[in-house]
Amino acid sequence: MSTATSTPKKTRFTPARLITAAAVLVLLILMLLSTKILTGDEATNAVPGSFSPASFAQEKFASEIVPDIEQRATDLVTVHEAIAKDPDAAAEQYGVVSGTSPVYSVKFTGTAAQPDANGQMPVEVEGMPSDVAVLVQMGPAINGTSIRDATGKVQFSQFKNQIDYQNVGAELNKQVRDTVLAQVDMATLAGKEVSVTGAFTLVNPQAYIITPVKIDVAP
Q1: Which Pfam families does the protein's record reference (predicted)?
Q2: Model confidence over 117-141: pLDDT tens digits?
Q3: I need a labelling partner for 104 at 20 to 30 A (CA). Which of 44, 76, 90, 193 fits?
Q4: Neighbours of 52 (CB within 10 A)
């Protein structure tokens, strides 16, 4: 008895099949070319109804928050004297109360020292007492929420939850670092005259830690 051996059937590539395969290949290439890889923030924005703290900060910082702080800014010595005389009256006249602490928008000119290990630059301001430190946050870490809270226009009620509210503060600080401090040569500041506009939250009356929205360095 003989056993029949089957021979695999060869696939015939007819012109129609070749055309179909080519069309599929072209379609796949077009799909790959049109595909955009989203960053974390872009992916968040792509979800309907989602909120991006980074986008909020980018939109509001230069267009609304900085101009508002500049408009509100009062001479630092004037603010200090008001605080020393009557903290409550000073907060009502010059500050924006956020939680239990007032936030002040200020401006001043003085002589800069080299930033310390915490990224805080001491500035000697004429008219300020020697026992009150004036410190400007120069990064890379920017702490606190003074920029978020200085105008009174960024309120917790605007956000879905506390996390978004906190993240907006952090993203606004990032805007300070990336758009304000990035323009300053830290290594050459010591001994130079600087003019600063910014905001601080009154926590320690012996040290005003100011987050800047504008720094001008004299030649």
Answers
A1: DUF2291
A2: 999 999 999 999 999 999 999 999 9
A3: 193
A4: 21
